[in-house]
Amino acid sequence: MTPRHTLLALLVVVLWGFNFVIIDEGLDGVPPLLFLALRFVIVAIPAIFLVPRPKAPWHIVVLIGLFLSLGQFSLLYLSLAAGMPPGLASLLLQVQVVFTLILASVTLREKPRRMQIVGTIVGMIGLGIVISGQAAIVPLLALLLIFAAALSWATGNVITRHAKISSGLSLVVWSALVVPIPSFALSLLVDGPTVVGDALAHLSLAAILSTVYTAVAASLVGYGIWNSLMARYPAARVAPFTLLVPVIGIAAAWVVQHEQPSVTDIIGGAVMLAGLAAAVIVFDGRRRGPAAADGLAAPLDLPAPTAHEVGATTAR
Predict the structure, then answer these.
(1) Would you kindly state where each structural domain of the chain is located, as residue ranges?
(2) Which residues contact 203 (CB under 8 A, 6 or more apart)?
(3) Where are the bilayer-spanning segments (predicted)?
(4) pTM for this model (two decimals)
């Protein structure tokens, strides 16, 4: 990758890493499902009037929206609201790589490589270390919700792989239309009209800024850059940058919210990320042509994989 594109990839990592703390700050005084609805309204509008519809059947777009956006982020928001520390959330959500590998193996008959199996086992050992250190601190419900969010993300990855979709920002924008109405309706049902109305009438500056950041910076800008990089370079060169997201997420939570990781968290997280790195970084030992060696897999004007496909794309 060129230095400029490397810096752009690192910018995305920073945007996504800070996203967890910013979501957690914005949730103060706003029901999580209502907060989610507000985010995806901004993601979809006015972008749908500027971005062409993805070249995919509507039912596929809807399923992707249900699992990658509504499922993943509603469960993530609920987990944070239930007491999951944002720094830890940024780490545990990476379990989606393991879930994607398992689901792809079962449903798509994709046989995992030996290094992927070893990496998955190492990653699960690291996860066990983290959980053992947090079992008495983090509520069980919050842990279950974050793992459900990772499973939802992985399910969306496999659906996208099965449908053989290769599109970029358009899929992110148009699938976002699936989120606002169901999440708003669920918020009315769970929190009640009075709570929802009061939250909308008294939105804090922190909630507004958080919504704008998550929609514009994390979703539109972050995914836009990421999709372009995924179109230009082989996935194995770009995808490993996502393993830096928990590092930024934990550091941001440490600085902003004084969420200091324990020794167990650091050791377990390091083991987990090392295992995931081994599982997702698949090196191709075959000879490549000059263009491939330079990382020019495709021009930028070709459709790009979505940012959510990272786990699935690299789990081959």
Answers:
(1) 3-313
(2) 30
(3) 33-51, 58-82, 88-108, 115-131, 137-159, 171-190, 202-226, 238-256, 262-283
(4) 0.78
